[in-house]
């Protein structure tokens, strides 16, 4: 299984995924986010063979760099349908397979986040999306951050929030997902899967952010030997 989440901010889209691949009893770390030559980034949840088929289908897509909304949607849907058609039936039921895509439309000067459904159809997500194991946890993580007006966030903040939501969902999930978190982003004129050192920088920023939250909720006090902690009113 895989968890992939995505957030569309003011300056771009960030995808995050877990990194655990499971083959029977064998578990190992594996790349789960991809970038196509024409600027689409994506990740999928489901059988690894289907991910390979989808990658091949997307490689064959006839799209220009930073493609137009409807052209990209049509090619991605065709790739999803061909991939799902190749999935083996198990007692008349195909295994679940979904995907999350993002790209920059140079014509409209807008970013898009598109979800590929397990029936082969696709639909746009306005601000955030999540697929795979821990999907509900991922969506909840974004929902509780909506007070930040997610669609207005700059790219670096979008990156931080996406990482944080993915990490929390993975830690809370009891299914076959695991750390570390992987990141990919698309912004105006740029689409890439982030290097390990770039992800580490985001992880450190998330740690600093959480520490400041703890300080705020403790009223600026460090835990003391007498057990004082938590939210307390300051003296007048």
Descriptive notes:
The chain is an alpha+beta fold and 236 residues long. The chain has one domain: Aminohydrolase, N-terminal nucleophile (Ntn) domain (Glutamine Phosphoribosylpyrophosphate, subunit 1, domain 1), CATH 3.60.20. Helices cover 33% and strands 26% of the residues. It contains 5 helices and 12 strands. The strands form 3 sheets. The chain has a 5-stranded antiparallel sheet, with helices on one face. A hairpin with a 2-residue loop joins strand 11 and strand 12. Helix 1 crosses helix 2, helix 3 packs across helix 4 and helix 4 crosses helix 5. The longest helix is centred in the C-terminal third of the chain and has 22 residues. It is globular. It starts with a strand and ends in a 19-residue tail after the last helix. The model has no long low-confidence stretch (mean pLDDT 90).
In short:
The protein has about 240 residues and is α+β, with helices and mostly antiparallel strands. The chain is built from five helices and twelve strands.
Record the SSE blueprint.
Blueprint: E1 3-8, E2 12-17, E3 20-23, E4 26-29, E5 33-35, E6 41-45, H1 48-59, H2 69-86, E7 98-105, E8 110-116, E9 122-124, E10 128-132, H3 135-143, H4 155-172, E11 182-187, E12 190-193, H5 196-217
Antiparallel strand pairs: 1-2, 1-10, 2-11, 3-4, 5-6, 6-7, 7-8, 8-9, 11-12
Question: Using DSSP, what is the number of strands?
Answer: 12
| Oligomeric state, counting identical vs distinct chains | single chain
Strand order of the largest sheet: 10-1-2-11-12
Question: How does the overall form come out from the CA principal axes?
Answer: globular
Strand content: 25-35%
The named CATH superfamily = Aminohydrolase, N-terminal nucleophile (Ntn) domain
CATH architecture: 4-Layer Sandwich
Number of helical elements: 5
Contiguous runs where pLDDT drops below 50 for at least 5 residues: none
Share of helix among residues?
25-40%
Rg (CA only): 19 Å
Distance between the termini: 53 Å
Q: What is the N-to-C order of secondary-structure elements (H for helix, E for strand)?
A: EEEEEEHHEEEEHHEEH
What can be said about the biggest beta sheet? Answer: 5 strands, antiparallel
Average pLDDT score: 90
Assign the CATH topology. Answer: Glutamine Phosphoribosylpyrophosphate, subunit 1, domain 1
* Class computed from helices, strands and strand pairing: alpha+beta
Determine and state the CATH class: Alpha Beta
